[in-house]
Each structure stands twice: as structure tokens, then as C-alpha cells.
Amino acid sequence: MTARDTQVRDLVRELLDLAGEGTAPIVRAGHPVLRAVALPYDGQLDDDELAALLALMHRTMRAAPGVGLAAPQVALPLALAVVEDPGVPSETLTEVRERAPLAFRVLVNPGYEAVSGERASFYEGCLSVPAYQAVVARHRAVRLTGFDETGRALDEVVTGWAARIVQHETDHLRGTLYLDRAELRSLAAADEIGVRWAGEPRPEAAAAALGFTLTS
């Protein structure tokens, strides 16, 4: 194990000790860890430590609440992420956004590539950039590769909102925030007006009112 690996393991142990059965603090934009490329996970933790870290990330994501959380968001420079989406109660939003529920899963050293040139533009936010949302044109379908927490290889096509979550969280592991890909004229505070824009099935009224072009 390298000195860097030992340092990361020490960071994980410290975080687990501080959090206990609670949640971890989520770092915000401006923290250098969010702009660094995460280290590939290569067994730096023993099985119990990895399980405890993933459980902590899961609790933290749910409490926030969010639909994904990458290790850099809890100040750990490791290529690990957790995702889970209960979906939305609106049938219209579910259909237009292709937002079927996504069961909890772990992504280890994930990567993605576009399956086609088709994109979908919707508002999204980030736990590390609280109180704002913006429209991001994402690949509608991506090929997800990597591993799960057991070491099983992942190689599958993910579509719709699940593909958006995968892209968002994997970007975190590359030092990229969603704002780097966003249509900045769409940026909206999460207040009454912003919620109205973000609540559209597709942000067409927001595009007309705020003066940006939807990419699809």
C-alpha cells in the first residue's frame, strides 16, 4: 500500500469515527477535493471499512436528501459513489423524464460513454451546490462500466434519469461539477420561482422566460 493509500485509509477511518451512526458532512463547491480526479479504488480498505463507508454514504445521501453521492462530496478522494432514486409521484414527470425508481447500488471506479448522440435537457441540482438548480443536457443513454462493491464487473446500458444520475456522480469522480456542463442562463435559486421552473416536465417555459435554448 502506498503512502497515498495509507493517507486515504486514515481519512476514511477518521470520518467513520466522527460520524458514528449519523451522517457525514457534505463539502461544498470551492473545496479542492471536488476539483481533483479521485483515486481508483484498489482495495485501500478492508471489507468491514468499505461496508461501513458505503453505509455512511447511503445514510448521508438519504438524509440530504439526494439521489446520488460521490466519495469526494464527503471529502474522500476515492472513486466510489452510491445512487438511489425513489422516483417521483407524478406520472407525467415519470414519463417525460424517464424517471423510473432506481434501486440502491454502488459504483466503484465507474466510467460511462454515450450510446448515441441523443441528449435530454432537464433541471438538476447537487448536494455540493445547495439552493440552486440549472438545466443540463445529458446523454439520454450511456454505457456504464466499472464494478460493484463485491468486485463484480459492470457493463450495461443505462437510460433516462438513471443515466443522468450515473453521469452526474461519475463526473464528480473526475473533478467535474454539474455547473460545468449547465446552461448558465437557466440557473435558478430553489425558491418559489426556481421550484416552478424545475417542476416543469421539460423546462420549455423556463427556456422561453430566461432566454436559453434547450438541447435535445
UniProtKB/TrEMBL annotation:
<dbReference type="Pfam" id="PF01327">
    <property type="entry name" value="Pep_deformylase"/>
</dbReference>
<keyword id="KW-0408">Iron</keyword>
<keyword id="KW-0378">Hydrolase</keyword>
<dbReference type="InterPro" id="IPR036821">
    <property type="entry name" value="Peptide_deformylase_sf"/>
</dbReference>
<comment type="function">
    <text>Removes the formyl group from the N-terminal Met of newly synthesized proteins. Requires at least a dipeptide for an efficient rate of reaction. N-terminal L-methionine is a prerequisite for activity but the enzyme has broad specificity at other positions.</text>
</comment>
<keyword id="KW-0479">Metal-binding</keyword>
<dbReference type="InterPro" id="IPR023635">
    <property type="entry name" value="Peptide_deformylase"/>
</dbReference>
<dbReference type="GO" id="GO:0042586">
    <property type="term" value="F:peptide deformylase activity"/>
</dbReference>
<comment type="similarity">
    <text>Belongs to the polypeptide deformylase family.</text>
</comment>
<feature type="binding site">
    <location>
        <position position="168"/>
    </location>
    <ligand>
        <name>Fe cation</name>
    </ligand>
</feature>
<keyword id="KW-0648">Protein biosynthesis</keyword>
<feature type="binding site">
    <location>
        <position position="126"/>
    </location>
    <ligand>
        <name>Fe cation</name>
    </ligand>
</feature>
<dbReference type="GO" id="GO:0006412">
    <property type="term" value="P:translation"/>
</dbReference>
<feature type="binding site">
    <location>
        <position position="172"/>
    </location>
    <ligand>
        <name>Fe cation</name>
    </ligand>
</feature>
<protein>
    <recommendedName>
        <fullName>Peptide deformylase</fullName>
        <ecNumber>3.5.1.88</ecNumber>
    </recommendedName>
</protein>
<feature type="active site">
    <location>
        <position position="169"/>
    </location>
</feature>
<dbReference type="GO" id="GO:0046872">
    <property type="term" value="F:metal ion binding"/>
</dbReference>
